[in-house]
Specification:
Among the domains are: 116-187, no CATH class; 261-354, no CATH class. It has helices spanning 62-70, 96-102, 114-117, 124-136, 140-153, 159-162, 172-184, 202-219, 230-236, 254-259, 264-271, 317-320, 339-350; strands spanning 20-31, 34-46, 51-55, 78-86, 89-90, 107-110, 190-194, 222-227, 239-244, 247-253, 332-333. The longest helix is centred in the middle third of the chain and has 18 residues, at 202-219. Helices cover 33% and strands 20% of the residues. The strands form two sheets. The chain has a seven-stranded mixed sheet, with helices on both faces. 41% of the residues are buried. The chain is globular. The chain is built from 13 helices and eleven strands. The chain binds adenosine-5'-diphosphate (ADP), iron/sulfur cluster and magnesium ion.
C-alpha cells in the first residue's frame, strides 16, 4: 500500500522562517478600462501543518492572490511586485520552468469547479497518474497503482474499477474528491484550496473538510483555504486573513476573528451569516452597498463608503488616510478606530446581533 510520506526537511529553508511568506504583494492587471489593482500590499505567512483561511466577499482578491503564489498569472497583462518566498525560494520573477516544477510537486491547488479542472477526454485515473509519473519518474503501472490508492484515500468506493471512469461518470462530490486526489498525488507541502466545497451539499462538504484535515495531520501540509463561508472557516482553519478590496483588513487566529473581530468589515461578514438559534423570520444584516471597483479604489480606508462606524473616528481620516495593519502577536485590524473603541462597539452593538451573550 502506498502511503503519504512526511515532508522532508526543506533545502533552501531559513531557520525559523515560515513555510510560505508573502510580503507586500501587489497584483495589477492592465485592462482596456485601466489598471485593476486586484491585490494591494498584502502580507501573510503560512506555517506547516496549519491552515490559513482567506475570507472576503466576491472580488476581494482572494483567488488573484493565490494564483500569484502559484505563478499562474499571464505575465503579458499582469504586474506582480513584492516577495513570495516558499520554503526559502523566492517565487516572484522565478522562471516558468521553476514554477512548473513546484506546481503539483511542492504546491498544488484544488479549484471550486471540478468539471472544468478535470479534462473530459481522459479517465480520472490517468489524470491522477500522469503528474505522479512526471514528477517522480514512476512506471505506468506504479503510477496507476498510486492513482487507485489516492482514490481510495479520498473515499471513492471500488477505486480499482472507478479509476478507469471518465469525469462525467462521477457525481459532483466524487469529482471533487478526485480533484483532491489529483492535488495530493505528489504529496504537496503547500495546498491551496479555492472555495473547494462551495458547490457541494453540506454532508459531502463536511466529509471533504474532515478528509483535508486528516491528510494534513498525516503529512504536515500547509493549507490556504479560500472561502466566503464562515462556517467552513470555523471547521477547518487555524488562522484567518480577512480581505477587502485587495488588502488585508484583519488578521488573527480563527478564535480571534470569529469571537472578537475588530474590523467593521469583519463585523459585517459575521452579522450577515444566518444564525442557527435565531427565529426563522429574523432578518439577516447584509453589509450595505457593494464592494468597490478596483479600477478606482476609494481613497483612505477602502471600506469607508460602506462603513457605519466611521463617524466614531471623529475626523475625515477614514476618507483621507489609509489605515495600516499593525500586528501584535499575529493579531491586528487596519482601522482608524482605537482598539478600546473597537472592543466596546463589538461588545455593545455587534455581539447582541449575533445572538451571543
Ligand atoms: N485577469 C484579470 N484581468 C482583470 N481583472 C481581473 C483579472 N482577474 C481578476 N480580476 C479582478 O480582480 C479582482 C479580484 O478578483 P478575485 O481574486 O478573483 O476575487 P475573489 O476574492 O472573488 O477570488 C476582481 O475585481 C476581478 O474582476
Ligand atoms: S477606518 Fe474608518 S471607515 Fe475604515 S473600517 Fe475603520 S471606522 Fe470604518
Ligand atoms: Mg475567487
Amino acid at each position: 500500500m502506498t502511503t503519504l510520506t512526511k515532508p522532508e526537511q526543506p533545502s533552501g529553508r531559513r531557520d525559523g522562517a515560515p513555510f510560505l511568506s508573502v510580503r507586500d504583494l501587489s497584483v495589477q492587471f492592465a485592462t482596456e478600462d485601466g489598471i485593476v489593482k486586484a491585490v494591494d500590499g498584502l502580507s501573510f505567512d503560512v506555517e506547516r501543518g496549519r491552515t490559513l483561511g482567506i475570507v472576503g466577499e466576491s472580488g476581494s482578491g482572494k483567488s488573484v492572490t493565490n494564483l500569484a503564489v502559484l505563478g499562474l498569472h499571464n505575465p503579458r497583462n499582469t504586474a506582480i511586485t513584492g516577495e513570495i518566498v516558499l520554503n526559502g525560494h523566492e517565487l516572484t520573477g522565478a522562471p516558468q520552468r521553476t514554477l512548473e516544477k513546484l506546481r503539483g510537486n511542492t504546491m498544488a491547488m484544488i479549484f471550486q469547479d471540478s468539471l472544468s479542472a478535470l479534462s473530459p477526454y481522459y479517465t480520472v485515473g490517468r489524470q491522477i497518474a500522469e503528474p505522479f509519473r512526471k514528477h517522480t519518474g514512476a512506471s505506468r503501472k506504479a503510477a496507476r497503482e498510486r492513482a487507485v490508492e489516492m482514490l481510495r484515500r479520498v473515499g471513492i468506493p471500488q477505486p480499482e474499477l472507478r479509476v478507469d471512469d471518465y469525469p462525467h461518470q462521477f457525481s459532483g462530490g466524487m469529482r471533487q474528491r478526485a480533484m483532491i486526489a489529483l492535488a495530493l498525488v505528489c504529496d504537496p507541502q503547500l495546498l491551496i484550496a479555492d472555495e473547494p466545497t462551495t458547490a457541494l451539499d453540506v454532508t459531502v462538504q463536511a466529509q471533504i473538510l474532515d478528509l483535508l484535515k486528516q491528510l494534513q495531520q498525516e503529512t504536515g501540509t500547509a493549507i490556504i483555504f479560500i472561502t466566503h463561508d464562515l462556517g467552513v472557516v470555523a471547521r477547518i482553519c487555524d488562522d484567518v486573513l480577512v480581505m477587502y478590496a485587495g488588502r488585508c483588513v484583519e488578521r488573527g487566529t480563527v478564535r480571534d476573528i470569529l469571537t472578537t473581530p475588530r474590523h467593521p468589515y469583519a463585523w459585517g461578514l459575521l452579522s450577515s451569516v444566518p444564525r442557527r438559534k435565531a427565529p426563522v423570520d429574523a432578518p439577516l444584516r447584509p453589509i450595505p452597498g457593494t464592494p468597490p471597483s478596483l479600477l478606482k479604489p476609494p481613497t483612505g480606508c477602502p471600506f469607508h463608503p460602506r462603513c457605519e462606524f466611521r463617524e466614531y473616528v471623529g475626523d475625515t481620516r477614514c476618507q483621507d488616510e489609509r489605515p495600516m495593519l499593525t500586528l501584535d502577536s499575529g493579531r491586528g485590524a487596519a482601522c482608524h478606530l482605537p482598539a478600546e473603541q473597537q472592543k466596546s462597539i463589538f461588545a455593545e452593538q455587534i455581539r447582541p446581533l449575533l445572538g451571543r451573550s
